[in-house]
Design a protein that fits this description.
Mean pLDDT: 95
Largest sheet: 8 strands, mixed
Distance between the termini: 65 Å
CATH architecture of the largest domain: 3-Layer(aba) Sandwich
Number of domains: 2
Radius of gyration: 24 Å
Number of strands: 8
Shape: elongated
Oligomer: single chain
Order of helices and strands: EHEHEHEHEHEHEHEHHHHHHH
Strand content: 5-15%
Strand order of the largest sheet: 3-2-1-4-5-6-7-8
């Protein structure tokens, strides 16, 4: 088993949750560093007893293993700061989804073993992460000691492991954004239309949660396109036309409704592709496509 004191770089939700889980599992998490001492101090208190808030420059003297959990765009700069602080010959894992190990090339040049380990889970708060990061899917890129340590972490957390090469991570992460973040946006768009129809958000959420839940279950348990139901799957142009008229009649109220109409049209065109694969008549598909292409003026 990989050994040595561990530092967490980043005081955000994932860093705090991972640090706490590893600390509670008995691993020697000794420090957490962040952009400000205040953030690091609050995060250290959350992670557990004996964890000290440090500056980046202090990490090489305190740790031989690091988990970098910072925003994707901050990762290159943080890696550069660590290199400038004198970090050498350690083990470094970052939790970014879109980035592979190449973003840590500078640290690898100084003798560090590096890997990328992304938790395929939504973590809206550190407290939520304490549950969500247990038993979830983790996506690993890397080899050597860092990859070995990453696998140990996944075992400790009861997770499952998927390994991808560097070049696959951007597409993988784009898919994750569609299935997680953009699903939130889509659900919010649907709830917004229900508010326009006169329902409160609370009533709308209670009424539609079972539909959304079953749709998600269907799409992940059935063959491609088989979970698609509704007017596009049936070729009901009249229904689609009524939807567009109803949404378009509210366009003047806010730019948000105009964006929702765009979402409806784009997803409708993608739905036609799936419906054709499942047997939708070509003539019906063309009619639906023409209708969805014509933006109401």
């Amino acid at each position: 088993m990989t050994k040595g004191p561990i530092g967490i770089v980043g005081a955000g939700r994932v860093g705090q949750a991972l640090g706490r889980l590893l600390h509670d599992a008995g691993l020697p998490v000794v420090a957490i560093a962040s952009r400000t001492k205040a953030h690091a101090s609050a995060a250290a208190a959350f992670v557990g007893a004996g964890v000290h808030p440090l500056d980046y420059a202090d990490l090489p003297r305190s740790c031989c293993r690091l988990i970098i959990a910072v925003p994707d765009d901050a990762l290159p700069a943080v890696a550069c700061l660590l290199r400038e602080s004198g970090w050498k010959d350690g083990i470094v894992i970052h939790t970014s989804g879109v980035n592979g190990t190449d973003v840590l090339n500078g640290l690898q040049a100084e003798g560090s073993s590096c890997a990328a380990l992304h938790p395929l889970q939504t973590v809206p708060s550190p407290e939520n992460g304490l549950k969500g990061l247990i038993g979830c899917q983790y996506v690993l890129t890397g080899d050597g000691e860092a990859a070995e340590w990453a696998r140990e972490i996944v075992v400790i957390l009861g997770g499952t492991l998927l390994e991808l090469p560097n070049e696959a991570r951007a597409l993988y992460h784009a898919a994750a954004v569609l299935l997680c973040n953009d699903f939130v946006v889509l659900a919010e768009a649907g709830l917004r239309l229900l508010e326009e129809a006169g329902l409160s958000r609370e009533v709308a959420a209670r009424a539609f949660i079972a539909l959304a839940d079953q749709s998600v279950k269907n799409v992940f348990s059935m063959p491609r396109g088989a979970a698609l139901t509704g007017p596009v799957a049936r070729g009901d142009t009249g229904t689609i036309r009524k939807h567009l008229v109803a949404i378009g009649s509210r366009n003047g109220r806010s730019g948000e409704i105009r964006e929702i109409e765009t979402i409806y049209r784009v997803l409708g065109r993608l739905a036609i592709r799936l419906a054709r694969e499942r047997g939708l008549e070509e003539s019906r598909g063309r009619e639906l496509s023409d209708l969805l292409e014509k933006r109401r003026r």
